[in-house]
Specification:
Elements (H helix, E strand, L loop, with lengths): L1 H29 L4 H25 L3 H21 L7
Helix pairs in contact: 1-2, 1-3, 2-3
Length: 90
């Protein structure tokens, strides 16, 4: 039981942090605003996403489901980041 709570805590803190930052980067690339405004919106959105992933990691039925639903969207978002990456950043 304690190991499951520790795994959920790890998924919530580390997985949620990585996922929310990936989404912040993706949003900053996709928004048609100035670079600084797009980054600010992405960072503000990442706080909401991070809070939601922490709540969700502890409300998921199993730890495996929590990790799958954190890693799958993170992988898809990472692919989109590389697809929409501006040419001057490579």
């Amino acid at each position: 039981m304690k190991m499951e709570v520790l795994q959920r805590l790890f998924a919530a803190v580390i997985g949620g942090y990585l996922f929310s930052n990936i989404i912040a980067i993706l949003v900053s690339y996709l928004l048609p605003a100035n670079r600084s405004e797009a980054v600010m919106v992405g960072v503000l959105l990442s706080f909401i996403i991070y809070t939601a992933t922490i709540i969700w990691a502890f409300s998921a039925r199993t730890v495996k489901i929590a990790w799958c639903w954190l890693l799958l969207p993170a992988l898809i978002s990472t692919i989109f980041i590389f697809l929409f990456l501006p040419e001057n950043l490579l």
